[in-house]
Amino acid sequence: MKKFAIIVSGGNGLRMQTDIPKQFLEINGKPILLHTLEKFAAADPNMEIVLVLNVDHQGIWNKIVNKFKVTIPYILVNGGRTRYHSVKNALKKIPKNALVAIHDGVRPLLSTSLILKGFEQVTKHEAIVTAIPSKDSIRRVQDGVSSALAREEIYLVQTPQIFTATILHKAYQQAYRNEFSDDAAVVERLGIPIHILIGETQNIKITYPEDILLAENILKHS
CATH classification of 2-220 is 3.90.550.10, yes or no? Predict the structure, then answer.
């Protein structure tokens, strides 16, 4: 089936405390979002990319496209009120007979092999989430009281999250709920099991200023 990638990049990145959204900040001389697009284009040149951007940010992106002479084909879609609404907008561009990877625009350090593994596994399991086992002890706090959780049962979720388009189209017909923090939560609401693909420690989500330094160091040594 045809492969699609939805790159979700509609946030403002307020925690980065910069004048421009974090997806447009440069690491090693290139905007974060462009690094991300290049990874998916390199994984499979025939993959179709759907880029989701806030309407107010599209002018910034157009300047980047011109400055860096971006030739990667993509379909531009307006971001929505939440991640759920952004993905729902993107799905309008995707047929049901397809495989779809949904990825954070600010996770530029994943490998092409991880992308391809996800597409390979989704043909067997229909719903794949990349995640890594927790290295740290975990505690839950409820009403001011903390309790230990079994670390070996805890996985830290990443993207890409990869699904058959048929499942995604059905899942995103559901009304929005506050607990839809990621795409897997939307799909899981249908009762569909989510299978884990072990992710990569370098596949960090760039959120804080120190993440820029970490990402630059990873790129220099990769």
Answer: yes
pLDDT of residue 222: 75
Q: State how far the Cα of 158 lies from the Cα of 118, in Å rounded to an integer.
A: 12
Q: Residues 139-191: pLDDT tens digits?
A: 999 999 999 999 999 999 999 999 999 999 999 999 999 999 999 999 999 99
For residue 31, how many other CB atoms are within 10 A of its CB? 24
Is residue 194 within 8 Å of 188, Cβ to Cβ?
yes
Q: Spell out, as residue ranges, where the chain has pLDDT lower than 50.
A: none
Sequence ranges of the domains in the chain: 2-220
The whole model's pTM is what? 0.95
**Could you please report the per-residue DSSP string of the chain?**
-EEEEEEEE----GGG--SS-GGGSEETTEEHHHHHHHHHHHH-TT-EEEEEE-GGGHHHHHHHHHHTT-----EEEE--SSHHHHHHHHHTTS-SSEEEEEEETT-TT--HHHHHHHHHHHHHHSEEEEEEE--S-EEEEETTEEEEE-GGG-EEEEEEEEEEHHHHHHHTTSPP-TT--SHHHHHHTTT---EEEE--TT-----SHHHHHHHHHHHHT-
